[in-house]
Amino acid sequence: MQGDPEVLEFLNEQLTAELTAINQYFLHSKLQDHKGWTKLAEYTRAESFDEMRHAELLTDRILLLDGLPNYQRLFHVRVGQTVTEMFQADREIELEAIDRLRRGVEVMRNKNDITSANVFEAILADEELHIDYLDTQLELIDKLGEALYLSTVIEQSQPDPSGPGTHGFKSP
For residue 157, what pLDDT is reported? Predict the structure, then answer.
């Protein structure tokens, strides 16, 4: 089925954003894990996988419309060094996505591509939930301070009860 060129461009632009977000969230999760912020790292890694599901959905839609998914470009990956910087960087990428998705829905509906608009609306709902999470975390950091906030997202490793060996330390 031949898709409208403007719709395909929106789909590919959002695909680029999702591929960028996958990398950004995954890198942030690895940095968080490295710093011992284990609970936060698990959440951020799951967000990376959510973005991967969005990329898959967009890829499938582009292919159905006889387009070519562009996996060769990425937007700028914003890397935070502190938890606040990470949340702010993630918030920026989400705000950009929300704006793009809303514009895309309008164009797609005007071109009577209701299915593509529905795909964008489903992704938009996820991104709005994520921005709410990020705003909440930033508010908590503002109220508690970074140190106290971070004390809530760490998980202490415990020695493996079977003793030293190939498993090292395990989380409880």
Answer: 58
Instruction: Round to whole Å and give the CA distance between 86 and 148.
Output: 17
Rounded Cα gap, residues 155 and 124, in angstroms: 32
What is the 8-class DSSP label of residue 76? P
Biggest alpha carbon distance in the chain?
65
Amino acid identity for residue 139 in this structure: E
Is the pLDDT confidence value at 9 over 90? yes
pTM across the whole model: 0.86
Number of H helices, E strands in the chain: 5, 2
Inside any domain, residue 57? yes
Q: Which residues contact 104 (CB under 8 A, 6 or more apart)?
A: 7, 10, 11, 13, 14, 116, 117, 120
Any idea what the CATH number is for the domain that residue 83 is in? Answer: 1.20.1260.10
Note whether residue 165 is domain-resident: no
- As a whole number, mean pLDDT of residues 26-46 equals 96
Q: How many domains does the chain have?
A: 1
User: What is the span of the domain harbouring residue 115?
Assistant: 5-157
DSSP 3-state of 167: coil
Q: What pLDDT sits at residue 154?
A: 84
Exposed/middle/buried for residue 66 (C-beta within 10 Å: 0-12, 13-18, 19+): exposed
* 170: β partners: 158
